[in-house]
Amino acid sequence: MSNTTRDSIGSSFLGSSFGQKVAGSIVDKSGTKSCCPSLTLKQRIIGFGVCTGLVSGNIARFAIPYTFGTLLSLAGSFFLSGPLNQLKKMFLRKRIIVTLVFIASIIMTLVSAIAIKKPILVIVFVILQYGSYFWYSLSYIPYGREIFCKCFKRRSGGSA
After folding, report:
1. Helical H runs in 31-116?
2. What pLDDT sits at residue 5?
3. How many whole angstroms separate alpha carbon 1 and alpha carbon 7?
4. In contact, 89 and 95? CB cutoff 8 Å
5. Torsion sign, CA atoms 78, 84, 88, 91
């Protein structure tokens, strides 16, 4: 494949900010050089897949460290109020549902990766894990959930 063809494919796949050659390296719109200018689009995609563990065929290599990181993040919040107090707060009425979804998504991420070995299920449960942990974390910020919801709420009135 010629450099021109590869550059046009990279430009259309990665957006217009990539694919512009300046003095032998790829430069984005801000004028900064790419970290890996000599990599082809195929090599970049392979690198992405390997780093996320999805290409290696062993989805557990991705799911286990990701889940461990989520649990480590949760354990970090124990320093703020203490482990027992944190556990009590996790099961308060306003957090019980999101806590159960969070725990279930952690368990199902591991089950999907280790026992079922279905990458798409792992991705679904990782997204659910991330979302539930985010929503759980917002519950500790005064009016955090309400402010977040207001950011995405459509305004009534105005022109339609």
Report:
1. 41-52, 60-76, 78-81, 83-90, 96-111
2. 47
3. 10
4. yes
5. positive
How far apart, in whole angstroms, are the C-alpha atoms of residue 17 and residue 4? 16
pLDDT of residue 42: 87
Q: Does the global pTM surpass 0.90?
A: no
Cα 74 from chain centre: 16
With beta carbons less than 8 A apart as the criterion, state whether 91 and 98 touch: no
Q: How far apart are CA 52 and CA 46, in angstroms?
A: 10
Sorted by sequence, the CB contacts under 8 Å of residue 71 that are 6+ apart come out as 106
| Residue 91: CB atoms within 10 Å | 10
CA torsion 103-105-109-111 (nearest 10°) is 70
C-alpha to C-alpha distance for 87 and 36, rounded to whole angstroms: 45
